[in-house]
Amino acid sequence: MSEISSGKIEIIQVDKFYDDVHAVRGVSLTIPAGSYCCLLGPSGCGKSSLLRMIAGHENASAGDMHIDGRSILGLPARQRPTAMMFQSYALFPHLTCLDNVAFSQKMQGVDKVTRHAKAKDMLDMVQMGDFGQRLPAQLSGGQRQRIALARALITEPKVLLLDEPLSALDENLRVLMRNELRQMQQKLGITFVHVTHTNTEAIATSDMVVVMGDGVIDQAGPPREVFNHPASLYTARFMGGHNIVPVRDGRLQFGGGQTAEPPKGDAGYYSLRQDLTLIEPLAQSSHSAEPSIEASIARVEYEGASFKVTLDRGDPAPLIARVFDRDFETSGLTVGAPVRLRFEMADLCPMRS
Amino acid sequence: MKQPLVTYILGAFFGLYVLFLYGPMFVIFLLSFQGPTGGMTFPLQGLSLHWFKELWAQNVSGDVAGSFQRSIALGLLVMVITVGVSVAAGFGFRRAFPGARVLFYVAVISLIMPGFLISFGLGLILQLLGIDAQWFTSALGAQLTWTLPFGLLIMFAVLARFDRSVEEAAQDLGASRSQTLRHVTLPLLAPGIVGVALFGFTLSYDEIPRTTLVVGNSNTLPMEVLAMTNTLTTPSLYAIGTITTLVSLACILFALVSIIRMQRRTKLKKA
């Protein structure tokens, strides 16, 4: 639709209190125009409150919000250049899909023929053209989501706000629909802000991942940066897929008294991607380079494409390595077997605690 | 299939309960079709519509037609006011305001007040103030002390199940508050509101204790029938019972059918 991207969001020192609960604490964030941004975090981290404040369904207790340079503070939801897709879609159960999509036009007083024609175009765009006369009750979860999407997009918003849009769907459909959302966003060129508590969903869809915890932003950046270089213990744990190596007395701690010289810097923790943590049976190991860390296998879990191998190392939390399943069969790795770790020091990422 | 003994005992108990519940009504219904030579008790002397004709021809002592009209009018009046006030109050209670809980208790406490006492007290006040009791003023007020708390309770139940995200969605899509109310909230609450209306009408239609001392010179139907039981000694009395019961049943049936039709349209099935 629009060739020039619009929908730049600036959130400036925003707070939200619910009675005594400080749900959002001085959050500042700039979301570039035409980008797909995921707000990621566990329930109660303030991500939904932030989304609802952008939509105008909650008022910020303090701070300011701009869309394309204009303050939206104090504007009611219907006057903001945003549209929201609700968690359970909030379709109007008494209206047909066509009338659901045409609702905003009806409120503006657009005549029936014109608004139905436009709603039909929107239904075609989400491949629901044949479902115009159905009621929401007669649709599957994925179909309802498409109707909700069409209903929101007919208002030609600069920003589409999606509140856990995939949580009502089963696993297969979730992967399918997140792909469709991403394609839709790229086609329209508007800003999408998508709230989720699923890390894979966030990194698969977005240009920008914003990890939130306890009302503040822990880390914000492109998905590859956030996944590869988690800046904190919190983000590393939430993104998953990382081993965490603590530093004590100036040495990396690998358990069982085994230590290594850390890279430069004074970080308290380092992360190491689990898939970059390689292991080989001690008996076959010819590797003698530093650091030489040994451990024994505590558990093995088959995950389809790979085996998840958990290494017991005593004091710090267990290390996890992933072994491609064909390699595993010939590797001689079994529970209790002693192994040697192999990894590149360059893959260690410093983190704050 | 062999069932444990307790099933038969409980089944028999339930049978007795149903007999006790509907038996009296059925007896009245049957006796209202008594033959012209029959009396107020069994046996039936043939079946006829004789006693309905008597009633129609106003050959009975009481003002049946007049009181029936008054009862219908009063029932409709009570219904309209109950719906208006209960729906508005239900919406009011959706936003938490200081003292909401106390106000709610004050509003519903009249449900447990003995009806006759309300009538008695209201009658005394009217006498003190020198105001004449009328069915459409004082009796209306007395009945509202009964129907309003009922209506409010129903609205609470209806609104508790109402998903407010559809209202937010409407406003997100550019609807004003009044448009949201008209196009989304009220259509979705309609089955519950019909329920409130039904309660308002039927509670008024057969109300006696609250009405009894404040109805004035012109009786409502239940009051008239109560008076007639002393003087009317023909099966026409049963004919009144049959007709009024049919009116009540028709109201309930109409309300149920419309509720079911509305719900069939709006009920969201689980995906």
Can you give a write-up of this model?
The complex is a heterodimer of chains A (353) and B (271). By secondary structure, chain A is an alpha+beta fold. Chain A has two domains: 9-234, 3-Layer(aba) Sandwich (Rossmann fold); 241-351, Beta Barrel (OB fold (Dihydrolipoamide Acetyltransferase, E2P)). Chain A is built from nine helices and 20 strands. Chain A has helices at residues 47-55, 97-107, 112-125, 141-153, 171-188, 199-205, 223-228, 233-239, 325-331, and strands at residues 9-18, 21-31, 36-40, 62-67, 70-71, 82-85, 159-163, 191-196, 208-213, 216-221, 242-248, 251-253, 259-260, 269-273, 278-281, 293-302, 306-312, 319-324, 338-342, 349-351. Chain A is elongated and about 80 Å long. The model of chain A has no long low-confidence stretch (mean pLDDT 89). With 271 residues, chain B is mainly alpha-helical. Chain B is built from ten helices and no strands. Chain B has helices at residues 5-31, 50-56, 64-94, 100-108, 115-129, 138-160, 165-172, 177-205, 221-231, 236-266. The longest helix of chain B is centred in the N-terminal third of the chain and has 31 residues, at 64-94. The mean pLDDT of chain B is 87. Classes of the chains: A alpha+beta (353), B mainly alpha (271). The interface between A and B is medium-sized, with 34 and 23 residues.
